[in-house]
Specification:
The structure is a single chain. Helix content is 47%, strand content 16%. It is of the alpha/beta class. It has two domains: 250 residues, TIM Barrel (Alpha-Beta Barrel); 74 residues, Putative flavin oxidoreducatase, domain 2 (Non-ribosomal Peptide Synthetase Peptidyl Carrier Protein, Chain A). The strands form two sheets. It has an eight-stranded parallel beta barrel, surrounded by seven helices. Strands 1-2 form a two-stranded antiparallel ribbon. Strand 5, helix 4 and strand 6 form a beta-alpha-beta unit. It binds flavin mononucleotide.
Length: 337
């Protein structure tokens, strides 16, 4: 079964979720190398983009060689969202040195952060299906690329209205809906309501992607089978673990792929840190690399100490030495057994 989004066909429907502060260009490339067939940017403020904020525009950078990438916007005013989408498709991507337009514009209707929902944005939109329709309609009228929407199960357990909101999005012209099967009230806590995701899939004629709580290849196969969805989207399980995508790809193709060795993980960490520094400059690269390094080494012997030390690293060389020393101590430990 394949999933079509605009002119792109995904063989297996394996998608990297948008994650603010995480799914920048570098991380998207690494996940795509491992098997993510489609990736979504960090959320981008429609309003800030319209004000031509340079940092905001930098989130939208995509190059010709990048994997199929959707740029995600958030906001609540249909005209502002439409203008931002138009800029991303035709204008501001040049300003931020992109060399191609996004595959799709994705609209954020799931962000639970207080400062976002206080403005009526993100998951607050789940409370207003009519506004959902207006936003999707305005955005899809403004761009020629597909418009996709990412929603939650509902606002809280008494208002699980994902089907209603998804229908409003479809009516407004959405080409695909992703359902994160938790309510805003749950934030990122279990359980994920896969039955509700199935209900959305059955109610819609456009493709539906299931998201939430997929932490292994087995989970991915099960969620795809149980929800009947056209694709699955992976968020937290990819943190410090782009390998999850190769494992899921293998499982979807009927193969089994072992978990990566510590050496493979540390090699990935080194590659990630170098790419971050190249893309964002050493200062920002190292600061951002700290959290990724901590995720990569999580669960390895002696990693708590490394995590502490990494937080005071200020140069790429320093960070690399810490990882090299950590690996060497690891090897020494193993050989002594
Ligand atoms: C740190 C973090 C940042 C996130 N940022 C975004 C975002 O910018 N846009 C969005 O639609 N969802 C965002 N999400 C939600 C994820 O895309 C995803 O829906 C959620 O994590 C559930 O999937 P998972 O259980 O596989 O992690 C974020 C989640 C996390 C943990």
């Amino acid at each position: 079964m394949s999933l079509k989004i605009g002119k792109t066909t995904l063989e297996n429907g394996i998608i990297l979720a948008p994650m603010a502060g995480i799914t920048d260009r570098v991380f998207r490339l690494l996940c795509a190398e491992q098997g993510a067939e489609y990736v979504v940017s960090e959320m981008i403020s429609a309003k800030a983009l319209c004000y031509k904020d340079v940092k905001t525009a930098s989130y939208a950078k995509i190059l010709d060689t990048d994997p199929p990438t959707a740029l995600q916007i958030f906001g609540s005013e249909p005209d502002v969202m439409a203008e931002a989408a138009f800029m991303l498709e035709r204008g501001s991507y040049k300003a931020c040195s992109s060399t191609k337009a996004p595959e799709a514009i994705d609209i954020n209707m799931g962000c639970p952060m207080k400062k976002i929902v206080a403005n009526g944005e993100g998951s607050a939109l789940m409370k207003k299906p009519e506004l959902v329709y207006d936003i999707v309609r305005a955005v899809s009228s403004a761009v020629s690329v597909p418009v996709t929407v990412k929603i939650r199960a509902g606002w809280d357990k008494s208002t699980m209205n994902a089907v209603e909101v998804a229908l409003a999005a479809q009516e407004g012209g959405a080409a695909l809906v992703t359902v994160h099967g938790r309510t805003r009230e749950q934030l990122y806590k279990p359980p994920v309501n896969y039955e509700l995701i199935s209900d959305v899939k059955r109610a819609l004629s456009i493709p539906v992607v299931a998201n939430g709580g997929i932490f292994s290849a087995e989970d991915a196969v099960e969620v795809m089978r149980n929800t009947g969805c056209d694709g699955i989207m992976i968020g937290q399980a990819a943190q410090g673990n782009p390998f999850i995508f190769s494992q899921i790809k293998a499982a979807f193709e009927g193969r089994y792929l072992d978990t990566p060795s510590d050496k493979q993980i540390l090699d990935m960490a080194r590659k990630h840190l170098k790419m971050l520094c190249l893309e964002k400059g050493e200062h920002t690269g190292v600061l951002e690399a700290r959290k990724h390094t901590a995720w990569y080494v999580k669960g390895m012997r002696g990693s708590a100490q490394l995590r502490m030390m990494v937080n005071s690293a200020t140069t790429l060389k320093g960070l690399m030495s810490l990882i090299d020393e950590f690996e060497a101590s690891f090897a020494a430990d193993t050989s002594g057994r």
